[in-house]
Amino acid sequence: MSVLEWFMNPLSYGFFGRALLAAILVGVVSSVLGTYVVLRGMAFFGDALAHTILPGVVFAFLWGWPLAVGALLMGILTALGIGFITERSALKEDTAIGVIFAGFFALGVAMLSASGNYTVDLAHFLFGNLLGVSSGDLWVIGVLGGLVLLVIFFFYKEFLVVSFDPVLATTLRLPTTFLRYLLLVLIAITIVVSLQVVGIALMLAMFVTPAAAASLLTRRLPSMMVLAALIGAVSGVVGLYSSFYLNIASGPAVVLVATLLFVLVFLLAPGRGVVWRYR
After folding, report:
1. Residue 70 pLDDT greater than 90, yes or no
2. Which of 120, 232, 252, 269 could in theory staple to 27 by disulfide, Cβ–Cβ 3.0 to 4.6 A?
3. Structural domain boundaries of the chain?
4. Is the pLDDT of residue 56 over 60?
Protein backbone atom coordinates (compact mmCIF):
# COMPACT_ATOMS: atom_id res chain seq x y z
CA MET A 1 0.00 0.00 0.00
CA SER A 2 1.38 3.39 -0.99
CA VAL A 3 1.45 6.35 1.38
CA LEU A 4 -1.30 8.06 -0.62
CA GLU A 5 -3.53 4.98 -0.41
CA TRP A 6 -2.78 4.66 3.31
CA PHE A 7 -3.93 8.24 3.76
CA MET A 8 -6.95 8.21 1.41
CA ASN A 9 -8.53 4.82 2.12
CA PRO A 10 -10.05 5.76 5.50
CA LEU A 11 -11.50 8.94 3.98
CA SER A 12 -13.81 6.83 1.83
CA TYR A 13 -15.87 6.34 4.99
CA GLY A 14 -18.06 9.31 5.84
CA PHE A 15 -17.67 8.86 9.58
CA PHE A 16 -13.88 9.06 9.29
CA GLY A 17 -13.96 12.40 7.51
CA ARG A 18 -16.20 13.88 10.19
CA ALA A 19 -14.00 12.43 12.91
CA LEU A 20 -10.87 13.85 11.27
CA LEU A 21 -12.33 17.35 11.09
CA ALA A 22 -13.55 17.13 14.70
CA ALA A 23 -10.12 15.96 15.90
CA ILE A 24 -8.39 18.89 14.18
CA LEU A 25 -10.86 21.45 15.52
CA VAL A 26 -10.65 20.13 19.07
CA GLY A 27 -6.87 19.87 18.87
CA VAL A 28 -6.58 23.52 17.88
CA VAL A 29 -9.15 25.02 20.26
CA SER A 30 -8.16 23.09 23.38
CA SER A 31 -4.45 23.62 22.77
CA VAL A 32 -4.74 27.39 22.25
CA LEU A 33 -6.79 27.82 25.43
CA GLY A 34 -4.48 25.33 27.11
CA THR A 35 -1.61 27.81 26.92
CA TYR A 36 -3.41 29.93 29.52
CA VAL A 37 -4.19 26.83 31.58
CA VAL A 38 -0.48 25.96 31.65
CA LEU A 39 0.75 29.50 32.28
CA ARG A 40 -1.72 30.10 35.13
CA GLY A 41 -1.22 26.68 36.73
CA MET A 42 -4.88 25.71 36.25
CA ALA A 43 -4.38 22.10 35.21
CA PHE A 44 -6.15 20.73 38.29
CA PHE A 45 -9.08 23.06 37.69
CA GLY A 46 -9.41 21.90 34.08
CA ASP A 47 -9.36 18.25 35.12
CA ALA A 48 -11.90 18.81 37.90
CA LEU A 49 -14.24 20.80 35.66
CA ALA A 50 -14.13 18.08 33.02
CA HIS A 51 -15.33 15.56 35.59
CA THR A 52 -17.96 17.77 37.21
CA ILE A 53 -19.94 18.10 33.96
CA LEU A 54 -20.80 14.39 34.13
CA PRO A 55 -24.16 14.93 35.93
CA GLY A 56 -25.22 17.39 33.23
CA VAL A 57 -24.22 14.98 30.48
CA VAL A 58 -26.05 12.07 32.12
CA PHE A 59 -29.16 14.19 32.71
CA ALA A 60 -29.23 15.23 29.05
CA PHE A 61 -28.64 11.61 27.99
CA LEU A 62 -31.50 10.28 30.14
CA TRP A 63 -33.94 12.91 28.91
CA GLY A 64 -32.94 12.63 25.26
CA TRP A 65 -31.43 16.10 25.01
CA PRO A 66 -28.24 16.90 23.10
CA LEU A 67 -25.34 16.02 25.39
CA ALA A 68 -23.70 19.36 24.67
CA VAL A 69 -26.63 21.23 26.24
CA GLY A 70 -26.37 19.42 29.58
CA ALA A 71 -22.58 19.58 29.57
CA LEU A 72 -22.50 23.29 28.74
CA LEU A 73 -25.01 24.28 31.41
CA MET A 74 -23.32 22.15 34.06
CA GLY A 75 -19.84 23.30 33.06
CA ILE A 76 -20.67 26.99 33.23
CA LEU A 77 -22.53 26.62 36.54
CA THR A 78 -19.62 24.67 38.02
CA ALA A 79 -17.01 27.17 36.82
CA LEU A 80 -18.95 30.09 38.27
CA GLY A 81 -19.67 28.13 41.46
CA ILE A 82 -16.01 27.35 42.10
CA GLY A 83 -15.10 30.98 41.55
CA PHE A 84 -17.87 32.14 43.90
CA ILE A 85 -16.95 29.69 46.69
CA THR A 86 -13.29 30.64 46.46
CA GLU A 87 -13.99 34.37 46.67
CA ARG A 88 -16.68 34.26 49.36
CA SER A 89 -15.15 31.77 51.80
CA ALA A 90 -11.88 31.04 53.60
CA LEU A 91 -11.33 27.93 51.49
CA LYS A 92 -8.43 27.87 49.08
CA GLU A 93 -9.26 27.32 45.41
CA ASP A 94 -7.81 23.80 45.24
CA THR A 95 -9.89 22.78 48.28
CA ALA A 96 -13.12 24.13 46.78
CA ILE A 97 -12.31 22.42 43.48
CA GLY A 98 -11.62 19.11 45.23
CA VAL A 99 -14.92 19.15 47.12
CA ILE A 100 -17.04 20.02 44.07
CA PHE A 101 -15.08 17.67 41.81
CA ALA A 102 -15.60 14.62 44.02
CA GLY A 103 -19.25 15.34 44.80
CA PHE A 104 -20.41 16.10 41.27
CA PHE A 105 -18.52 13.25 39.66
CA ALA A 106 -19.98 10.82 42.19
CA LEU A 107 -23.44 12.23 41.47
CA GLY A 108 -22.97 11.66 37.74
CA VAL A 109 -21.80 8.07 38.23
CA ALA A 110 -24.73 7.40 40.59
CA MET A 111 -27.22 8.80 38.06
CA LEU A 112 -25.69 6.71 35.30
CA SER A 113 -25.68 3.52 37.38
CA ALA A 114 -29.39 3.95 38.03
CA SER A 115 -30.12 4.24 34.30
CA GLY A 116 -29.27 0.67 33.31
CA ASN A 117 -26.53 0.28 30.68
CA TYR A 118 -23.90 1.53 33.10
CA THR A 119 -20.61 0.12 31.76
CA VAL A 120 -21.08 1.01 28.09
CA ASP A 121 -22.47 4.48 28.75
CA LEU A 122 -19.79 5.36 31.31
CA ALA A 123 -17.02 4.28 28.93
CA HIS A 124 -18.57 6.45 26.19
CA PHE A 125 -18.67 9.52 28.43
CA LEU A 126 -15.23 8.97 29.96
CA PHE A 127 -13.22 8.16 26.83
CA GLY A 128 -15.19 9.78 24.02
CA ASN A 129 -16.53 8.40 20.76
CA LEU A 130 -14.63 10.21 18.04
CA LEU A 131 -15.69 7.87 15.25
CA GLY A 132 -19.32 8.47 16.21
CA VAL A 133 -19.22 12.23 15.53
CA SER A 134 -22.30 13.28 13.56
CA SER A 135 -22.83 16.31 11.32
CA GLY A 136 -24.74 17.95 14.17
CA ASP A 137 -21.83 17.33 16.53
CA LEU A 138 -19.50 18.95 14.01
CA TRP A 139 -21.66 22.07 13.94
CA VAL A 140 -21.60 22.26 17.74
CA ILE A 141 -17.83 21.79 17.83
CA GLY A 142 -17.29 24.37 15.08
CA VAL A 143 -19.58 27.04 16.51
CA LEU A 144 -18.49 26.72 20.15
CA GLY A 145 -14.82 26.30 19.20
CA GLY A 146 -14.99 29.37 16.98
CA LEU A 147 -16.59 31.33 19.83
CA VAL A 148 -13.74 30.36 22.19
CA LEU A 149 -11.07 31.41 19.68
CA LEU A 150 -12.90 34.68 18.97
CA VAL A 151 -13.04 35.60 22.67
CA ILE A 152 -9.34 34.74 23.08
CA PHE A 153 -8.54 37.00 20.12
CA PHE A 154 -10.48 39.99 21.48
CA PHE A 155 -9.21 39.60 25.07
CA TYR A 156 -5.67 38.53 24.17
CA LYS A 157 -3.91 41.51 25.77
CA GLU A 158 -6.00 41.38 28.94
CA PHE A 159 -5.45 37.64 29.41
CA LEU A 160 -1.74 38.15 28.71
CA VAL A 161 -1.33 40.75 31.46
CA VAL A 162 -3.42 38.83 33.99
CA SER A 163 -1.51 35.61 33.31
CA PHE A 164 2.02 37.04 33.53
CA ASP A 165 1.66 39.94 35.97
CA PRO A 166 -1.52 40.05 38.16
CA VAL A 167 -0.12 43.05 40.08
CA LEU A 168 0.26 45.05 36.87
CA ALA A 169 -3.28 44.03 35.87
CA THR A 170 -4.59 45.47 39.13
CA THR A 171 -2.52 48.63 38.68
CA LEU A 172 -3.94 49.10 35.17
CA ARG A 173 -7.43 48.61 36.67
CA LEU A 174 -8.25 45.72 34.43
CA PRO A 175 -11.44 43.85 35.39
CA THR A 176 -9.48 40.92 36.84
CA THR A 177 -12.49 39.23 38.43
CA PHE A 178 -14.45 39.38 35.18
CA LEU A 179 -11.47 38.08 33.20
CA ARG A 180 -11.02 35.20 35.63
CA TYR A 181 -14.66 34.17 35.36
CA LEU A 182 -14.51 34.56 31.58
CA LEU A 183 -11.51 32.23 31.41
CA LEU A 184 -13.32 29.68 33.58
CA VAL A 185 -16.34 29.79 31.27
CA LEU A 186 -14.10 29.38 28.20
CA ILE A 187 -12.57 26.29 29.80
CA ALA A 188 -16.07 24.91 30.41
CA ILE A 189 -17.09 25.54 26.79
CA THR A 190 -13.89 23.93 25.47
CA ILE A 191 -14.54 20.84 27.58
CA VAL A 192 -17.97 20.57 25.94
CA VAL A 193 -16.34 20.93 22.52
CA SER A 194 -13.88 18.14 23.33
CA LEU A 195 -16.33 15.78 25.04
CA GLN A 196 -17.10 13.69 21.95
CA VAL A 197 -13.46 13.44 20.89
CA VAL A 198 -11.49 12.44 24.00
CA GLY A 199 -14.14 12.17 26.71
CA ILE A 200 -14.15 13.41 30.27
CA ALA A 201 -11.28 11.33 31.65
CA LEU A 202 -8.76 12.34 28.97
CA MET A 203 -9.77 15.99 28.57
CA LEU A 204 -6.91 17.28 30.72
CA ALA A 205 -4.36 15.89 28.27
CA MET A 206 -5.70 18.01 25.41
CA PHE A 207 -5.50 21.14 27.56
CA VAL A 208 -2.06 20.56 29.01
CA THR A 209 0.10 18.31 26.82
CA PRO A 210 0.29 20.31 23.53
CA ALA A 211 0.65 23.60 25.43
CA ALA A 212 3.32 22.13 27.71
CA ALA A 213 5.28 20.90 24.70
CA ALA A 214 4.97 24.30 23.02
CA SER A 215 6.20 26.04 26.18
CA LEU A 216 9.47 24.11 25.86
CA LEU A 217 9.97 25.36 22.32
CA THR A 218 9.29 29.09 22.73
CA ARG A 219 8.89 31.75 25.41
CA ARG A 220 6.59 34.05 23.40
CA LEU A 221 2.86 33.55 23.92
CA PRO A 222 1.76 34.02 20.26
CA SER A 223 4.33 31.47 19.09
CA MET A 224 3.34 29.16 21.94
CA MET A 225 -0.30 29.29 20.85
CA VAL A 226 0.55 28.53 17.22
CA LEU A 227 2.85 25.63 18.13
CA ALA A 228 0.35 24.24 20.64
CA ALA A 229 -2.41 24.37 18.02
CA LEU A 230 -0.15 22.62 15.51
CA ILE A 231 0.78 19.89 18.01
CA GLY A 232 -2.88 19.45 18.98
CA ALA A 233 -4.00 19.16 15.35
CA VAL A 234 -1.22 16.72 14.45
CA SER A 235 -2.07 14.64 17.52
CA GLY A 236 -5.68 14.46 16.39
CA VAL A 237 -4.84 13.41 12.83
CA VAL A 238 -2.12 10.88 13.67
CA GLY A 239 -4.11 9.52 16.60
CA LEU A 240 -7.20 8.99 14.46
CA TYR A 241 -5.29 7.17 11.71
CA SER A 242 -3.55 5.06 14.36
CA SER A 243 -6.93 4.21 15.82
CA PHE A 244 -8.23 3.16 12.40
CA TYR A 245 -5.30 0.95 11.40
CA LEU A 246 -4.37 -0.45 14.82
CA ASN A 247 -7.98 -1.00 15.92
CA ILE A 248 -7.63 0.89 19.21
CA ALA A 249 -9.89 3.44 20.90
CA SER A 250 -9.69 6.79 19.14
CA GLY A 251 -9.67 9.10 22.18
CA PRO A 252 -6.77 7.38 23.95
CA ALA A 253 -4.91 7.14 20.63
CA VAL A 254 -5.05 10.92 20.19
CA VAL A 255 -3.82 11.49 23.74
CA LEU A 256 -1.00 8.95 23.36
CA VAL A 257 0.26 10.69 20.23
CA ALA A 258 0.19 14.06 22.03
CA THR A 259 2.11 12.52 24.93
CA LEU A 260 4.70 11.03 22.56
CA LEU A 261 5.21 14.42 20.92
CA PHE A 262 5.68 15.99 24.35
CA VAL A 263 8.31 13.40 25.27
CA LEU A 264 10.18 14.07 22.02
CA VAL A 265 10.11 17.82 22.65
CA PHE A 266 11.13 17.30 26.28
CA LEU A 267 14.18 15.35 25.12
CA LEU A 268 15.13 17.20 21.95
CA ALA A 269 13.90 20.82 22.27
CA PRO A 270 16.75 23.08 21.05
CA GLY A 271 18.53 24.60 24.03
CA ARG A 272 15.96 23.37 26.58
CA GLY A 273 15.61 19.63 25.95
CA VAL A 274 17.27 17.06 28.19
CA VAL A 275 19.60 15.87 25.42
CA TRP A 276 20.77 19.42 24.66
CA ARG A 277 21.36 20.30 28.30
CA TYR A 278 23.48 17.20 28.97
CA ARG A 279 25.51 17.15 25.76
Report:
1. no
2. 232
3. 3-269
4. yes
Q: Is the pLDDT of residue 117 over 60?
A: no
Judge contact between 97 and 85, C-beta under 8 A. Answer: no
- Distances in Å between the Cα of 109 and the Cα atoms of 59, 123, 242 are 11, 11, 30
CATH match for 3-269 among 1.10.3470.10, 3.10.20.30, 1.10.1760.20, 1.20.140.10: 1.10.3470.10
